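the two lines:
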Amino acid sequence: SQTIHQWPATLVQPVGSPLSLECTVEGTSNPNLYWYRQAAGRGLQLLFYSVGIGQISSEVPQNLSASRPQDRQFILSSKKLLLSDSGFYLCAWSVQGFDEQYFGPGTRLTVT
Amino acid sequence: DQQVKQNSPSLSVQEGRISILNCDYTNSMFDYFLWYKKYPAEGPTFLISISSIKDKNEDGRFTVFLNKSAKHLSLHIVPSQPGDSAVYFCAAGGSGTYKYIFGTGTRLKVLA
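prediction for all of em together
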């Protein structure tokens, strides 16, 4: 069966520090991968998606970037965090050609 | 501009009764819709989906209805159980586009 892992579960970082969140999927090949953010009281906002290694589409101009160095690995990064980057970050995957997305457990990021 | 709206932030229902969660969208190009359930500090879990070629889809206690002319969908849970207490998100998009717009969620509380 397929599983999706995200780490860390929680993170507290000072403004201006770098960020690296990692997501890996097991049990499937060539998945579509997604990064979402849920800010307090808001819906899920799609940040990035990827349909293959090295291919990244950005949905919202911002302080963040994403990379897909391996087929089942998706990384969310920032060089300098802002207070507004605080939120709940979710990684998701889907089977190519199918719309249903399956989410990881999420990372709670607090920028202080 | 919010393309997917869940106008009820919260809903309380007695155990055994029907829960009806509503979702409205504005983009007539959306042709695939999904519902997710989310517990605190966890990622959303896929519940049920519906294509625009249908007006109803059932899966056990969960039924989703789609009214394309009104750009409205609803999720019915019958009978409601205390374990259904969670935040429910609807999402809408174009099938195969990978890009889904999520609503802000409705917090359902099922009272024992």
